[in-house]
Write a structure and sequence with these properties.
The complex is a heterodimer. By secondary structure, chain A is an all-alpha fold. Chain A has one domain. Chain A has helices spanning 2-7, 10-148, 150-166. Chain A is rod-shaped and about 200 Å long. The model of chain A has no long low-confidence stretch (mean pLDDT 86). Chain B is mostly helical. Chain B has ten helices and eight strands. In chain B, a hairpin with a 5-residue loop joins strand 1 and strand 2. The chains are: A mainly alpha, B mainly alpha. The interface between A and B is large, with 32 and 46 residues. Chain B: It is a multi-pass membrane protein.
Chain lengths: 167, 375
């Protein structure tokens, strides 16, 4: 202890304290302050950059989710549109079919009516012709018979009466 | 196998060494020269450990026994009824008396004493020098080294700061090596010991003492042989600063803890007898803590220097072909350890200072209670 005390030099202590305090002050102003600030700024920058990256990632995920949703919606819409189209097509086809059927039926009916009326007309025509023919034949026959026999005339009359009843 | 070989080698070399030294003793006929060598080495080591008024580079002895010192004289500044400044070359290493403005001064064991014209040193009862000692404010070797180290640190770290400004806050070149050390002190020493909120205030001091002690320790290992951190005045100044900062930045909690360590755990009447013992212990503790800092650094660095120089000195005692390489190898190994010690002591000083600052600046009472529970 005594050796320590005798080794102690007041002058050196004073110099040491003064120089150290000056050094501390200078370093604080020109070195540690700027260094620590720079390091802090850098760390702050890194932290904010990381946060920004995280945000961007989240944003990206949102965008992806959005686009996926949009895609899904579009797909669903297309699906429904296709379905609708199919339905419309089917409806149109069936409508057309129905219409065609109705039209066809109508035409068939008309045709039938026409045929019927034609047939009637034809029958009537035939009847007329037959009647004319018969009349002509009968005329010829009558002309023959009348000249010969009164009784035969009576017979034609009865025959004609039969024909009229059949018609 | 290898170990036994090594131990055999060591035994043989030890035997050889003793034989050779015996032989030399016999040749020189008597122990006196050997003893002189030992005392000389001892004195040399003691001289080296102490501060000096000149920056010695080397010294040698001429054939006629005359000692020649090659050194750079440094200015002597003393206060003795007025400021006196002169060159230390006037002392001629204590061999002559320096006359300045009618007063006579003599350098004796690296200290300046006022003497009469003949340079007489008077001794007291127990070999104490009775001469007057003027206030010595000389720029000694240690002061020069502090100055150089200070300039070096200032240059290094202001360049680092500038390199940040230039390179967009990124270190470049050598600063990539220095920056992690600064960050280590911040993240591993200051932050955990002082706390996230208050550590910034102490950073300049912690960084400065760390690099100051480390660099001076390393300078101590160079052949220049400066022993700044192994000087009690230096470590005292450093520890005193730690103590003052601890005391002045101490919070209410810290002081309350000093004078009222038990807090509300018992009624005041029961505390009185306890506090007669406890409070002085607590107060002593605040002084013992920095005191341990100053002794630890001083003792470690001085011990390292003594061991190293003694090992080198062995070379001159065992003047044999086996002693020199052995002492050289040992000195080399110790040097490597000393490089580690240089860093370690700087780290410990900084670390413990941070710890004391942490205690002093604590604000939450819960932490203290936790600490007591922990103890």
């Amino acid at each position: 202890m005594e050796k320590l005390l005798s080794d102690f030099s007041l002058g050196l202590f004073v110099w040491m304290t003064v120089l150290f305090l000056i050094l501390l002050g200078l370093l604080r102003k020109f070195a540690w302050g700027p260094i620590l600030n720079a390091v802090n700024d850098r760390e702050e920058g890194i932290r904010s950059a990381l946060a920004a990256a995280e945000d961007a990632k989240r944003e990206m995920q949102n965008v992806t989710a959005d686009s996926e949703r949009l895609l899904k919606e579009a797909r669903a819409e297309r699906e429904s549109m296709l379905k609708e189209a199919r339905e419309i097509k089917e409806k149109i086809v069936s409508d057309a079919r129905d219409l065609a059927k109705v039209e066809g039926d109508k035409m068939i009916k008309q045709a039938q009516l026409t045929i019927e009326s034609e047939k009637k007309a034809a029958v009537a025509d035939i009847k007329n012709q037959v009647a004319e023919l018969s009349v002509a034949i009968a005329e010829k026959v009558l002309k023959e018979k009348l000249s010969e026999n009164k009784k035969q005339l009576e017979l034609v009359d009865s025959l004609l009466g039969d024909i009229k009843m059949n018609a | 196998m290898r170990n036994t070989l090594l131990s055999k080698f060591l035994i043989v070399s030890a035997l050889l060494m003793s034989f050779t030294s015996f032989a030399k003793d016999a040749k020189e006929a008597g122990e006196a020269p050997e003893k002189d060598k030992k005392t000389e080495i001892k004195e040399y080591i003691e001289h080296h450990l102490k501060d000096s008024h000149s920056f010695s580079l080397f010294s040698y002895t001429k054939d006629n026994g005359e000692h020649v010192y090659v050194d750079i004289p440094l200015p002597v500044i003393i206060w003795d009824e007025g400021l006196k400044v002169f060159s230390s070359s006037k002392f001629h290493h204590g061999e002559t008396v320096a006359e300045v403005d009618g007063s006579y001064y003599k350098l004796y064991h690296n200290k300046i004493y006022e003497t009469n014209a003949d340079g007489e040193i008077r001794y007291g009862d127990d070999h104490k020098v009775m001469n007057d000692k003027p206030l010595d404010l000389s720029i000694t070797k240690n002061v020069v080294m502090i100055f150089i180290t200070g300039l070096l640190i200032l240059w290094m770290f202001s360049s680092l700061a500038r390199s940040y400004a230039k390179n967009n806050n990124m270190p470049k070149g050598i600063w990539r090596f220095m920056e992690p050390i600064v960050l280590y002190i911040r993240d591993e020493i200051a932050r955990p010991n002082i706390g996230e909120k208050r550590y910034r205030k102490y950073m300049p001091f912690l960084l400065t003492i760390f690099f100051f002690i480390w660099f001076l320790n390393i300078f101590g290992l160079t052949p220049l042989g400066v022993n700044v951190t192994g000087n009690i005045a230096i470590t005292f100044a450093l520890a005193l600063m730690t103590f003052l900062i601890t005391s002045f930045t101490g919070t209410k909690t810290y002081w309350k803890h000093l004078f009222d360590p038990l807090g509300d755990t018992m009624p005041w009447i029961a505390k009185i007898p306890l506090y007669i013992i406890l409070v002085p212990i607590e107060l002593l503790g605040t002084i013992v803590k920095p005191f341990s800092l100053l002794i630890r650094l001083y003792a470690n660095m001085t011990a390292g220097h003594i061991v190293l120089m003694s090992l080198i000195g062995l070379m001159f005692i065992f003047k044999s072909w086996i002693g020199s390489p052995l002492s050289f190898a040992l000195a080399f190994a110790i040097s490597l350890i000393e490089v580690l010690v240089a860093l370690l002591q700087a780290y410990i000083f900084t670390m413990l200072s941070a710890l004391y600052f942490g205690f002093a600046s604590e604000e939450h009472h819960e932490e203290h209670e936790g600490e007591i529970a922990h103890l």
